[in-house]
Each structure stands twice: as structure tokens, then as C-alpha cells.
Amino acid sequence: MLARKDIAGQHDVMTIEETQMAKETNAAPRKRRKFLVVVDGTPECEVAIQFASRRAKHTKGGVVLLTVLEPGGFEHWAGVEKVMKEEARQEAEKIVHGHAAHVNEVAGIVPELVIREGKKTEIIADLLKEDPAISILVLGAGTSKEGPGPLVQMVAGGADAGFSIPVTVVPGTLTDEEIHDLA
Question: What gap in Å lies between CA 36 and CA 51, rounded to an integer?
Fold first, then answer.
């Protein structure tokens, strides 16, 4: 196998078949696409992770698990804010590592883990600019009477409200068997 670098400077690996095809067609090899899932601890997030893992496995892609630590509102109490941020980061790491193990179990993939502070929509937009291999955002639709969730509502709000990549919205009520059949 030969190593290659993508636009973001990350190493990827070409299979022997890809190398041979590239030589025969003088074409650049396809980059490995990544599925981005926002990890927020909701049941529908777990459905989105399951769907993205299966799709990545079937398309030889990757999975990026993003956790966003949103501002807590304690900025005027610096000591309290620092402790709360550290506790939130530790909890986020614990949750995202648990989901990473699940991705590995389902798809045999070691996902990329990203934990950032800020507003979800801004963090997602920044991450998409930084990593051009992320090509699909997978969201789980909430099942409560409050609606499908803020990110799904934003994406459904029209062209101006969305992101620069396709978005797959997975119904939060899907079972593992249904996801297996779909993905």
C-alpha cells in the first residue's frame, strides 16, 4: 500500500487496487469521505452514530464524532467557570470515548474524536472548513413533542440556514435492524 496526503495534510492509505486503477486511468484516487456526527447524549444521537458507522463501513469511509461544549453562563465567576468547564470536558471525553468504542465494534473503524467549546453551528461550520474530507453530516431526529431538535430544525429552515455539505437526517425511532437494512 502507498501512503498519500489529503488536502488537510492527513495521511490516508491507498489499496493496491486503487493504486493500480490510478496508474491505468491516470486519475487521482478518491479521497476517503467522512461522516460527521454531533454527539450530544440524546437517544437520537445514538441512532445517528449507528447509521453513520454502518454507512462508513459500507463505503470504506470514516467517522468523526464531534462534541461541543456550549458556554455555561458563568463567565463572571472565573473560578466556577473553570471548574465547570473541566468537569464538562471530562464528561464529554467519557461519553465520546464510549461512542467511539461502539463505532469500532459496529464498523471496525477508529473514529476521529473532536471536542470543542462554542456554539454548535459555528463549530460545525469551522470543522467543515478545516477538514474537506467530511462530506456528510448525519443527524438524528428527536422523537419528543418539542420537535426534531435544534440542528435538524435549522437545516430544515432553508438553504441559508444549512451547511456546505449534504445532511442525512435519521429518524430517532429506527431500530438497529432497520438501520442495518438501510445503511
Answer: 11
- For residues 114 and 77, what is the distance between their CA atoms, to the nearest angstrom? 27
Query: What's the alpha-carbon Rg for the chain, to the nearest Å?
Result: 18
CA–CA dist 112, 121 (Å, integer): 19
Query: What is the enclosing helix (H) or strand (E) of 20?
Result: helix 16-25
Q: What does pTM read for this prediction?
A: 0.76
pLDDT tens-digit readout, 29-54: 456 899 999 998 888 899 999 999 99
Pairing of strands 11-14, 2-5: antiparallel
* Parts of the chain belonging to CATH 3.40.50.620: 32-182
Q: How would you class 157 by CB atoms within 10 Å of its CB: exposed for 0-12, middle for 13-18, buried for 19 or more?
A: exposed
32, 62 in Cβ contact below 8 A? yes
The CATH superfamily assigned to 32-182 is HUPs (3.40.50.620)
Using CA atoms, how far residue 141 sits from 22, 99, 146, 150, 171, in Å, is 40, 18, 11, 9, 5
